[in-house]
């Protein structure tokens, strides 16, 4: 099939490219020889609504479909996979980006355009700069198996991988780049665990095997009597 692992000469439009992950994405693609068009809008609304994204994608569509090999890579968040209490506008918008990704993957697939979504965990960028270092470290130690915040370039490299011509059969994928945060707490559970009783909250910060083994006695009985689930 001759699938290339190079983006040299490809035209890439990066939005939000003045800072953080957008900037790192523009730099990584530039270093790989792509022709990068970088845009930014100094907006307070970093949630990035799905309707704004849709308008942007619609504008680019004629160019994306021309060679039947276009790539759209959306940036959502681990908040698009779960929820943190009291962040509902952000969470709603990120779930919207995940939904938009899946819809467009189905709609544009027939035209040869792939649409995938990256869900970053906590990353050192302008957005997280106001969070005190102590709080960042505490959060990372408790929640992220790699026990640290990520760097923008670590997200940018995954965006590059998804955009390679060689990634031609990857479509509609929702990819966490989060140091294992969602692996630890499970998709869809997010910070809902914060509402657990104090006894269980302390259990969740202990090594995973202990947390997983614990189950209320009733559930333990039900699990034991249930036949094994087929793969
Ligand atoms: N930093 C994190 O921990 C983290 C985690 C998950 C998801 N995200 C998401 O990643 C994306 C990038 O954030 P970041 O952390 O790199 O922040 P950042 O503040 O470093 O950079 C964001 C850039 O986007 C620009 N921008 C905002 N709205 C725009 C718009 N409508 N059009 C064009 N540019 C716009 C800003 O001017 C800024 O330059 C955001 O959607 C954010 O919600 C960030």
Structure, explained:
- The protein has 231 residues and is mainly α.
- It has two domains: 11-186, Rossmann fold (3-Layer(aba) Sandwich), CATH 3.40.50.720; 189-225, no CATH class.
- It contains nine helices and five strands.
- Helix 1 (20-31) packs across helix 5 and helix 2 (50-66) runs parallel beside helix 3.
- The protein is globular, with a radius of gyration of 20 Å.
- Bound molecules: nicotinamide-adenine-dinucleotide (NAD).
- Nicotinamide-adenine-dinucleotide (NAD) is lined by residues 15-16, 18-22, 39-43, 46, 48, 52, 75, 77, 120, 122-123, 125-128.
The structural domain count equals 2
Give the strand order of the largest sheet, numbering strands 1, 2, ... along the chain.
3-4-5
- Compressed to H and E, one letter per element, the order equals EHEHEHEHHEHHHH
Attached small molecules: nicotinamide-adenine-dinucleotide
Q: Helical region count? A: 9
The gross shape turns out to be: globular
Provide the CATH topology of the largest domain: Rossmann fold
| N-end to C-end Cα span | 32 Å
Given helix and strand content, the structural type is: mainly alpha
Query: Which percent range describes the beta-strand content?
Result: 5-15%
CATH architecture of the largest domain: 3-Layer(aba) Sandwich
Uncertain segments: 188-201, 203-224, 226-231
How much helix, percentage-wise, in residues? 40-55%
CATH superfamily of the largest domain: NAD(P)-binding Rossmann-like Domain
CATH class of the largest domain: Alpha Beta
Radius of gyration: 20 Å
């Amino acid at each position: 099939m001759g699938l290339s692992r190079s983006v040299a000469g490809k035209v890439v439009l990066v939005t939000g490219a003045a800072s953080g992950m957008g900037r790192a994405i523009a730099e990584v693609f530039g270093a790989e020889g792509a022709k990068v068009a970088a845009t930014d809008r100094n907006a307070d609304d970093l949630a990035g609504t799905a309707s704004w994204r849709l308008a942007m994608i619609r504008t680019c569509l004629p160019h994306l479909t021309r060679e039947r090999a276009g790539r759209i890579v959306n940036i959502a968040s681990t908040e698009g996979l779960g929820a943190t209490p009291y962040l509902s506008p952000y969470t709603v918008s990120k779930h919207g980006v995940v939904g938009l990704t899946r819809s467009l993957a189905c709609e544009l697939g027939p035209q040869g355009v792939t649409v995938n979504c990256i869900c970053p965990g906590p990353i050192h960028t302008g957005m997280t700069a106001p969070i005190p270092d102590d709080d960042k470290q505490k959060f990372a130690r408790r929640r992220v198996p790699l026990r640290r915040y990520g760097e923008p370039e670590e997200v940018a490299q995954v965006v590059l991988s998804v955009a390679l011509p060689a990634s031609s059969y990857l479509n509609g994928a929702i990819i966490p780049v989060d140091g294992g945060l969602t692996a630890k707490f499970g998709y869809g559970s997010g910070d809902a665990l914060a509402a657990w009783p104090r006894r269980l909250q302390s259990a969740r910060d202990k090594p995973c095997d202990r947390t997983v083994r614990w189950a209320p006695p009733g559930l333990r009985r039900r699990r034991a009597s249930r036949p094994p689930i087929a793969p």
